[in-house]
Structure formats: C-alpha cells, structure tokens
Design a protein that fits this description.
By secondary structure, the protein is of the alpha+beta class. The chain is built from three helices and four strands, in the order ββαββαα. Strands 2-1-4-3 form a four-stranded mixed sheet, covered by helices on one side. The protein is elongated and about 75 Å long. It starts with a strand and ends with a helix. The mean pLDDT is 87.
Amino acid sequence: MPTFKIDHANGKKIPTAKALPVSLTFKPTDTIADVKKEINRHFPRLPVTRQRLSLESKEVLEDDRALSDLNDNVTLYLKDLGPQVSWRTVFMVEYLGPLLIAPIFYHFPQIYGQGTFKHSKMQTLVYGLVMLHYLKREFETV
C-alpha cells in the first residue's frame, strides 16, 4: 500500500491545514480524488474544491489519475486555491446585468443626455426580445 507525504506547495503555510506535512497511506487502486477526500477528512476547513495537488516537477495531478501511476513514497504538494464560485453563480450574475441595465436605458433616456421621447416600434420590439432572451438564459441556468 503506497504511502504519500502531503506537503505545502511552494513552502507556503496553509492556514486551513496547519498540521502539514502529513503522511497518508492509500490502496493502489485509489485516485487523486480519493487523496483529496482524505485530506478533507484530516482538514475539514479545506474542501476538495479548494485543493490542488502537484508533483515536485510542478505537474498538476488530475482527479481521475490513479495512484498506481505514481512512484511509492513520493511527495504530493498541496495548494489551497481559495474560495471557489460555482459556474451557476457566475452565469446568474452575468445574465442579470442586461436585465438590470437595459430597462434603465430604455425607461430613463435622460441618463445619456436625451430628453423624454417616444420609442419606435422597432426599439420596443428589440427591448422586449433582449429581455426575453436574458430571462430565458436565467431560467436555463437555474
């Protein structure tokens, strides 16, 4: 059963994993994802999504890589990637922008130096289509 030493990447201390370095033993059939789960068990404040493991050669190890591909007693270097934002949140915020900004410019033209005026049918149609488009994107994302 291979044993791996887990240490700080770049020699920088990780506040959420102060007890590093540690030595952990795994089955040969385990993967890097299993290593990350075990690190999370030892350091609960360091979730799997914040972890990046690499070799001394700076090669980043993918989650599906088998431990049998690595030499026994090798040192794996752990880096805390910091808080992660989900893609769902990114898209929700991205599509919310046009839903908030377009109505401001449509309903308050005095913002960009125009007095009040009546919008043409084409402007109203485009405004409605833009709003529907981004509403649809928001619903797809949820």
